[in-house]
Amino acid sequence: MNIKDVMNPKADVISPSTTLKEAAEKMERDGVGFLPVGENDELKGTVTDRDIVVRGVCKGKDVNSTSVGDIMTGQVLYCQESQDVDDVARNMSEQQVRRMPVVDDNKRLVGVVSIGDMAQHLSADVAGRILKGVTAESRAA
Asked: The CATH number of the domain where 74 resides is what?
């Protein structure tokens, strides 16, 4: 089974100039905790609800004036819609990420996939190993 069969095709991109407050409001409205950040049809990074709290609020940044570009994760990890679910799940475990942007053959954003999206399509054994890898304490500590 391919990622395009399990991904969430709703992947609104926000600008790096979006404020933390605007990003948090969008997350609340859309019921998500992850947003791709892009500009001029290019992915620049990602931001999570945790990024907003840990890199923004906890650091005393003003949520009304601090931009997502100031706190986002700039390293964009992504997968292709044609990749196999098991392969992407293993990669997400190794990279310790819970969500990943999905691109087409032209590297255009077509969706987002999460461990939860894939879990029902993995064997219990594989799902357990993947979840353990994603939730393990960071190896880069």
From this structure: 3.10.580.10
How far is the C-alpha of 73 from the C-alpha of 28, rounded, in Å? Answer: 20
Distance CA 74, CA 70 (A): 10
Specify if 11 maps to a domain.
yes
Is there a contact between 78 and 111 (Cβ–Cβ < 8 Å)?
no
Domain span at 27: 3-135
* pTM for the whole structure: 0.80
Question: Does 36 fall in a domain?
Answer: yes
Burial class of residue 74 (count of CB atoms within 10 Å of its CB; 0-12, 13-18, 19+): exposed
Distance CA 31, CA 46 (A): 16
Q: Is residue 53 part of a domain?
A: yes
Task: Walk along the chain (141 residues) and give the pLDDT tens digit of each residue.
Answer: 999 999 999 888 999 999 999 999 999 999 989 999 998 878 899 999 999 999 999 999 999 999 999 999 998 899 999 999 989 988 988 888 889 999 998 888 999 998 888 888 777 777 677 777 666 665 443
Q: Sign (positive/negative) of CA torsion 125, 126, 127, 131?
A: positive
Q: Which two tokens stand for residue 15?
A: 């600008």
